[in-house]
Write a structure and sequence with these properties.
The longest helix is centred in the first third of the chain and has 14 residues, at 7-20. By secondary structure, the chain is an alpha/beta fold. The two termini are 17 Å apart. It has two helices and nine strands.
Length: 110
Amino acid sequence: MAITLTASAADRVRGHLASRGRGEGLRLTVKTTGCSGLSYVVDFADEVADDDKVYTSHGVKVVVDAESLPFLDGTEIDFAADGLAAAFKFNNPNVIDECGCGESFTVNET
C-alpha cells in the first residue's frame, strides 16, 4: 500500500515548503496519546533517515518512519478549509475507532 495526498493537501504542503525555503516534504508519524491510544503527528521532513519509507504523491514527498508505517499504511491525507478552520484530514483504513473529539484513534492490533 502507500500513503497518498489529495491535490489539495499536496498544494498546502508545497506552499508551506516554499515559504520555509527548505524541506524534503511532509513527515507523518503517530504517537501514543489521547483517549483512543494514537494520534497523528504532522511535521516537515527536513531529512530522510535510512529506515524511513518515502512516498511521492502529486509531486510531494511523504516521509514515514518504520515504526509508524503499520498504523498508517494506506492512509490518504486531505486538506480542507471551512471558514476559519483549516486542517489535514486522514482517511486511514487501519482505524477501527476514534475518540469523540477526533484527536486520537485505535487500530486493530495484529
